[in-house]
Amino acid sequence: MKLMRHTGKIALLVAIIGVFAMGLVLIGARLGLWEPITGFGLYRTYFNPLGGIILGLGLLAMIIHVLRKERRGAIAGGVAALIGLACLAPLIAGTINPQRRAPPIHDISTDTTNPPAFEVLDETRQGARNTLEYGGPKLAETQAAAYPDIAPLETDLSADAAYQRALAVALDMGWEIVASDAERRRIEATARTSVFYFADDVVLVVTPQGVGSRVDMRGVSRVGRSDQGVNAARIRAFQERFGA
Questions:
Q1: Global confidence as pTM
Q2: For the packed helices 7-27 and 71-87, what is the interaxial angle rounded to 10 degrees?
Q3: Which of 74, 71, 46, 44 is nearest to 58 (CA)?
Q4: What is the tens place of the pLDDT at every residue in 90-140?
Q5: Which of 36, 147, 200, 218 lies in disulfide reach of 109, CB 3.0 to 4.6 Å?
Q6: Nearest CA to 116 among 241, 235, 230?
């Protein structure tokens, strides 16, 4: 009976510890504790069960304290239940409104006929399981069906001005510049996702075109069969910022 008086506090303590653990899973790779794929695996394995435990324990504590007419304990249990419900929000949202499944590709290019090639970044980059070699016509066909809007960026800027603008945008977006060649107007960089800290390698090339220029960009994820649309989204974001 004595333990029942503290059920709400216990539920709230479990919820706080659970939230801390979940936060650590999300940023662990950024802190250097493990590789991004490890953090993602922990997320897929433990997030929903942990959220369910917190929700269930919180509801149980709330019911016990309501029956015992213990207001503070009931509030603590209710708060724990709300925390558990918040942890399950992605699962609930995905169940109610399933998102379109991303295609099983992780190499996206604005030019699928002559995709920009990596010259500095190579197969020795840390944690890489995917190759930098382009997948050819089959990959291009899959990309065209999934992301028909991904295309080269054409600008009225001169090639040199477009290169400087592209470099400024890349830095503004937080990319780690691995190589920049102003003479050949090429940039190679590594961009990371905010959650899990996955690394995607990027190559950008600016070429003269009439009185203006053309900016081509390619992004390749280091791990995963599918990039969940991240590289396409990054290309769109870059092009939007470039023109802003």
A1: 0.84
A2: 20
A3: 74
A4: 888 888 887 778 899 999 999 999 999 999 999 999 989 999 999 999 999
A5: 218
A6: 235
**CB of 185 closer than 8 Å to CB of 164:** no
Which residue, chain included where needed, has tokens 């960026």? 153
Nearest-angstrom CA–CA distance, 88 and 51: 6
Instruction: Give the 3-state DSSP-derived string for the chain, with helices as H, strands as E and coil as C.
Output: CHHHHCHHHHHHHHHHHHHHHHHHHHHCCCCCCCCHHHHHHHHHHHHHHHHHHHHHHHHHHHHHHHHCCCHHHHHHHHHHHHHHHHHCHHHHHHHHCCCCCCCCCCEEECCCCCCCCCCCCCCCCCCCCCCCCCCCHHHHHHHHHHCCCCCCEEECCCHHHHHHHHHHHHHHCCCEEEEEECCCCEEEEEEECCCCCCEEEEEEEEEEECCEEEEEEEEEECCCCCCCCHHHHHHHHHHHHHHC
CA atoms of 11 and 48, how far apart (whole Å): 17
Q: Exposed/middle/buried for 62, CB within 10 Å: 0-12, 13-18, 19+?
A: buried
Q: Which tokens is 196 given?
A: 């899990």
Which pair of tokens denotes residue 238? 């870059």
